[in-house]
Amino acid sequence: MRVRKAVSAHKTALPRETGSTRVYTELRHNILSMVLPPSAPLDEVGLGKHFQLSRSPIREALVRLASEGLVVTLQNRSTIVAPLDFRSVPEYLDALDLLQRATHRSAAICRSQRDVEEIEATLGIFEKKAKLSFDTDDWLPMIEGNYDFHIRIAQAGRNQYFVGFYKRILEEGRRMLYFHSEFLFKSLGSTVGRLNQHHREILEAIRVQDPDETERLAHEHARQFKGDFLKYMERSITSKMKIAT
Fold first, then answer.
1. Residue 239 lies in a domain
2. CATH for 62
3. CA-to-CA distance for 66 and 80, rounded, in angstroms?
4. 140-167: string of b/e by CB count within 10 Å (b at 16+)?
5. Which of 60, 119, 198, 241 could connect to 20 by a Cys-Cys bridge, CB 3.0–4.6 Å?
6. pTM for the predicted model, two decimal places
7. Does one domain contain both 119 and 74?
8. How far apart are alpha carbons 226 and 221 in whole angstroms?
9. Are residues 106 and 171 located together in one domain of the fold?
10. What is the pLDDT of residues 118-129, one digit of tens each?
11. Distant-in-sequence, close-in-space partners of 223: CB < 8 Å, separation ≥ 6
């Protein structure tokens, strides 16, 4: 009898996923993995039928996604997946470079031993997720792990404004990183080892509290992303194709 009560109590203690959380999780995954492309409409009625839920949890999920910049509400109150404006890509890349250097340099100066340990733990999780992504060709786990690693570094810098701006930049960049990841890792031959080496070097510079080296590595990391992304945008399968002889 006691065993039954214990089991019953254990079951009661387990957290239950709410309808809103389920909607948020699925939509977020589909947006970040480009299953739902930029500017795709998100109809509350249609989503309610798909998830078999009322409109209230659907709205809660959309509000949460809007707070992350993944959806936007138009003037007519309809909701769409946030567009990607390629005209602003140069500005985005400049902001990424500047904020990455600032946050990582601050981390090297202000970090505690606990920060170092937690950054290293987050890096270990990233490395496992990166391997999973390479094994499955699903790049979302690696992208999420990369986001968590860099945000944890930013938090070690003890500047909430830097963290807030940097977080927004990384969140906006996740979709860009996703849709060129297959090209990056398949066509350009990037490897898990290269990614892990970059991150390990940043971690070691923070560990020994070398702000100049940390900033240099953070800049190089951002520059590498910029170079890879531009190669993706400039790719061509027809430039060497002969139409006529």
1. no
2. 1.10.10.10
3. 10
4. bbbbbbbbbbbbbbbbbbebeebbebbb
5. 60
6. 0.79
7. no
8. 9
9. yes
10. 999 999 999 999
11. 97
**Total structural domains within the chain:** 2
- Mind listing the pLDDT tens digit for each residue in 27-43? 998 998 889 999 999 99
Answer yes or no: do 130 and 229 share one domain.
yes
- 80 φ, ψ to 5°? -135, 160
Return d(Cα 73, Cα 173) in angstroms, integer. Answer: 20
The residue among 81, 99, 117 that closes a domain is 81
Residue 42 and residue 62: Cα distance in Å, rounded?
A: 9
Is residue 162 in some structural domain?
A: yes
Closest C-alpha among 176, 177, 221, 171 to residue 200: 221
**CA-to-CA dists, residue 53 to 4, 42, 112, 121, angstroms:** 33, 15, 46, 38
- 11 and 50 in a single domain? The answer is yes
Last residue of a domain, one of 30, 58, 81: 81
Same domain, 39 and 121: no
Q: Minimal CA–CA distance to 39: which of 68, 78, 4, 2?
A: 78
Phi, psi of 191 (to 5 degrees): -130, 165
Tell me, yes or no, whether 193 and 105 share the same domain. Answer: yes
Task: For residue 144, give Cα distances in angstroms to 29, 55, 135, 213.
Answer: 11, 29, 16, 25
Domain region containing 187: 86-233
Distance of CA 29 to the CA centre of its chain: 11
Closest CA to 181 of 213, 141, 212: 141
Same-domain status, 229 and 131: yes
Question: Does an H or E element contain 81, and which?
Answer: strand 79-81
Q: Which residue has the higher pLDDT, 181 or 82?
A: 82
Q: Is 181 a residue whose pLDDT tops 90?
A: no
Q: How far apart are CA 45 and CA 40, in angstroms?
A: 15
